[in-house]
Amino acid sequence: MFGLPAFNSLPDGPFAYTALDATTLTVLGSVLLHGGGSIAIARLLQGRGAAVS
Fold this sequence. Notes:
The protein is mainly α. Helix content is 87%, strand content 0%. It contains 2 helices and no strands. The model has no long low-confidence stretch (mean pLDDT 82).
């Protein structure tokens, strides 16, 4: 949420691009973990529930 304002307020240079890189990696990681990871976990839990029943 604060990555883009931090990028815009920092002077052009390595610190600004480090902030932008960190924000990008955080957002992409969150999308992957919450999106793709949740499907894999749901399938894993569903398979365990079927085996117990």
